[in-house]
Amino acid sequence: MRNLLNPKWLLLLNTLPVVLLVLLCYGEFSVIQSLLPPASVQLWQGFGLGLAGLGIGTLAYAGVQLRRGREVGVGYSVLALVAYSAFLLLYMGYDAELVPRAVPRWMIPTEPFLYTITLLMPTLAHALFALVVHWTPTERLPTAAVNFVLAFVAPLAWYVLLLVPFSAFDSGHQGWFWGALFAVTLAAGVIGFLFFVVRGAYIMGLKRGEDAEFHLVWKLLIALILPVLGLLVNNGLFFGRLMGGETGVFGNFNDPWFYALAVLNGLLLSVPDGNNPRQRLLVFLGRSVLLGYTLYFFIVFLPFLPLSVLAVLLIGLGFLMLTPLVLLVVHVRELGADLEFLERFYPRRWLRAGLVAGFLTLPLVMTGRYLHNRWVLHEALAYRYSPDYSRRYSLDEQALVRTLQTVREHKERTDDFFQGKHVPYLATYFNWLVLDNLTLSDQKIADLEQLFLGTPLKAAFSEVTVTATGATTSTSTAVARPALTSLTSRSTYDAQQQAWVSWLDLKVANANTTQQAGEYTTLLELPTGCWVGNYYLDMNGRREPGILAEKKTAAWVYAQILNERQVRDPGLLAYTDDQHVSLRVYPVVGDAPRTTGIQLLHKEPVTLTIDGRQVTLGGPAGSSGATAAATANQEVVLVSAAAKAQLPLVRRTPYYHFLLDVSAAQVDNRTTYAAGIKSKFALPAADKQTRFTLVDAYTTPVPTGASWQQALAQHESRGGFYLEGALRKLLFEVRQHPGPTYPVIVVVTDKPENAIWGAGLAELSSAYPEGDQFYVLASDGRLAAHSLRTNSQAVWPDAPAPGTPQPVRAWPDAAQPRAYLPNNERADIVVNDAKIGLPQPTSANSRWQTGLLLHGYQQWQAFHPEATDQQRVPFVQASFRAGIMTPFTAYLALENEAQKAALARKQQQVLNANAALDVDESSQDTVTEVPIDGGVSLLLAAGVGLGVRGLRRRKQARGK
């Protein structure tokens, strides 16, 4: 421990944590600053200057001592204990003023108080250790037993001499003096208690050679028995039952590896000193490796050391909380003795290198394990949500099982004191390294398990019947909601961009004027070629323009504001699919109307329907008629309804493409497929153009001319029935190679409830111009139609019969068509190039043309999802520059600057992460983890609460 007096430790244990604390707290302050009253801002500035002064003073002292070649002195250690303890006590006293209750907690995912107590404790611990070294003479060692007695008697004496008299004066009228005296005495008592505990352990280490037998028993107790007992207590040993493998008091330390390392560490530290250099070297290296294990638990329990005094008084198990502290002293002392012995046989620099390498072993192993988890998870997410159709995937299912289990354990949060489900600090590291500080929703975990493992979803499958228009009948009782009361429009033709700029102005109000804080929601269908270019919401007597933000982030911020107990004023406008936009306004209170507006850019006049009201935007001026509009370089073309009507009408030849369910759950029913296909498709199935694809977790096409029945019999099933993936890959190939034929898709399965359907494939509609129907065939011959576009699980009774050719339009001509368009009276967007480039900041395109390019790129990306991760951020940034909303962005109107700052911070985090990860459970996009878990923070609050009590009294006295 003598090495702790080297001033270099101050740089690691003080300067680095203080700099990190300043940065973290400044990040929180910059978000909530606009919500703070002037008094709170002054407190932030005062504490910031105080912390900066302490940090600079310590750094200067370390520099002076390093230049002089001197050790850390007693004066510094005493001054550091007093100064930083005083800082923490003052911070505790003003914590409620620094972050008032009016500040929404979602804006500060981790309380600055937790940052402060966590990052300043290393400075206090180092100063305490330094005093122990200075005040423990090595020439004539004191008695360790006396120090332990003093340490254990101190809590009782503190209780008798301080709490009892203080309680006698607890009449509610004591002034600031009693509060300050209580806090100072409490801090001094805690420091004195910990000082004698550490000093006693240090003395035991120095006396290691005097009584070998006693020393062995002592090390077995500290290094083996108490750590294992602590793990058992954390696991619920004294709470009537063991909690199992998911929970613990201070965190989830129930993995068998924690117990194995605890036993191995205890045995290595208890090995008697030997004179064989090779054996001693092996023991030294083993102890070096496990130093990381000891140090980890020391760091975990470091913020709770002040609580150990209270725990000793109340429940008698506080001694277990002190075990990591004492064990670190023993561990460091044993390594020092090993070094002193081995330096006689080996070069000192190699021994130090071995110590460093050993210490880094466990962190590197853990990092390597997490990196493997990240790779496995991201591979699975890429295959499920952004696959490369030109690549053949084959994932390690067992590795994925372990990874998903780890994700589930690390992402769960709880505020129950006795239900800690996280591994402290490691969970934070895992979430940063593997999950990019986001999360993976339970729904996505279940989807991945169903896909790769064949695990059925818990929710029961229901076969809903829908009409041809997709309408369903709801049996839920209607609830009075805010409704549209006024709809007006204003349109201006912009000759420069040759497009209309129109505004929709909506007024909404409660039908029931007694309703408080209602939310107005509506769904608006936009015609092809109509883009959202702006948005506003009137709030507090002003017109607040919407902020164009990343879609998942905007939805998360909107949801957080709605969850506040205070009434705020957000508005959200976002795509639900490629043609529908959702509008949400909150709150609509009483009979007070709310006004909101949407700007639309469109080439031709359009008629829209909102809540049953129709409005026409634009006029005859500037109408393109039969002329197709395009971007400047012709990458994307908008074929208007009139222009499409002039394209040649053709009929393509249909052929059947059977998707055969070969998942693990369907193994016993494969033999019935041939009979079912023959009964419904005897002739077409024998046609040479008929195609077959085997579908489980992966898609395996049967080569043309090969026997599909033989391929079916020889196939080894893997995972679940990934129908959505098979449909996407098939439609991708159809769109990539447009020709005179098109597939009629028939899914063959007896268990459609086990299929992974997805919400629909509306974004791939250009691949099925003849119609969006496909069919599901059961082995008993039942044939049901479904829609590719939306609500794919629902049966579509009015769908056309299989194999009925429908005419389509060939673009640009019938001789060399590059695309086929549905024969209807709607405009279509055609992607004219194999690859679409995003608009650049210097682009000369008009806003409408930029919108066409963005939506064309979105259509291209739907067929090339492998580009999502690389191109998502440039796509979103291009949307921001143009002010054109896309399915990846949303308009959000916010009330104050703090909400906007929180939006910007969260958006940066989301854009830096994998696109398939979620922000939280509810929106499919979870709040990031915090350094100290929810339940454990309650324990920490209980420990410091006693010290804050007196300072709170002072505020009450002032109020009187």
TrEMBL record:
It comes from the Bacteria. Residues 472-602 form the VIT domain. The chain crosses the membrane at residues 43-62, 74-93, 113-133, 145-164, 176-204, 216-237, 257-274, 281-304, 310-330, 350-371. InterPro entries: MSEP-CTERM (IPR027550), PID_CTERM (IPR058207), VIT (IPR013694). Keywords: Membrane, Transmembrane, Transmembrane helix. This is MSEP-CTERM sorting domain-containing protein. It comes from Hymenobacter metallicola.
